[in-house]
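Request from the bench team (R.T.):
"We need a structural guess for the complex before ordering more S-adenosylmethionine. Sequence and SMILES attached. Just send the tokens back."

Command: build protein-S-adenosylmethionine structure.
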Amino acid sequence: MNTGIHSELDESPDSLPTEGRVLLRAAYVYDAVQPFVTLGQEARMNCWLADQLPLTDGMRALDVGCGTGLLTVAIAERHLQCQVEGIDASKPMIRVARKKRTRSNCIFRQALAEELPYPDQHFDIVTSALFFHHVNRGLKRRCLLEIHRVLKPGGRLVIADMDRPYTLLGTLLSYGAWILFRQPEIKENMDGVLRVEVSGAGFGTIQDLGRFSGYIRVFAAERLQ
Ligand SMILES: C[S@@+](CC[C@H](N)C(=O)[O-])C[C@H]1O[C@@H](n2cnc3c(N)ncnc32)[C@H](O)[C@@H]1O
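Reply to R.T.: structure attached below.
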């Protein structure tokens, strides 16, 4: 199933052209660093999130900005009768994901979130973890419109990302990351911009599902008919 896609990757650039903050060399240390970044919550959050998804046999799920595939594979391993795909703009990320995490019901492709290489209404669920604080407001909007396009009517978008922090440590970490990385996209998320854009892209009421590490919130919304 992966054959054609693997050869595509050999010829592609390290990063597809995007305004998003694409992680390249970080791919090789990402799995080691991520437990620290999430204060030890990364595995728990991904497994918990995968368990929340209302996937039944034969359904299709897409994980946007999948990185090394930590969430993607958690979904695939919990929903063995579903087909799960992960996309990321970074070739190194996709290489690591394919090396460590491809399963028979799970594939990874290098692709842009703002130009998803799928037909309309193709997926039942779209997930995204810690991706939207890597894209500016205009790009958030474009990505959400693309996600809306590839979701079936009634399909569900589930996002885990930086949001309004809810502990003192979470607040310090969020402001610290915003200043240290000079990343206005982080402040946008802290100010609730992502939620505004989700609603603006044609999704229904936002439902809060959970929160992790003092600064990450998980929320979901359905594509309206
Ligand atoms: C912090 S990582 C999150 C990875 C993974 N979802 C996780 O939870 O561990 C954010 C990812 O978004 C990717 N990215 C940034 N801009 C992108 C875009 N326009 N399209 C697809 N991926 C993008 C980066 O390359 C990076 O791998």
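Two things stood out. Residues 18, 20-23, 34, 65-67, 70-71, 88-90, 93, 112-114, 129-131, 134-135 surround S-adenosylmethionine (CB under 6 Å). Residues 3-222 form a domain with the Rossmann fold fold (CATH 3.40.50.150).
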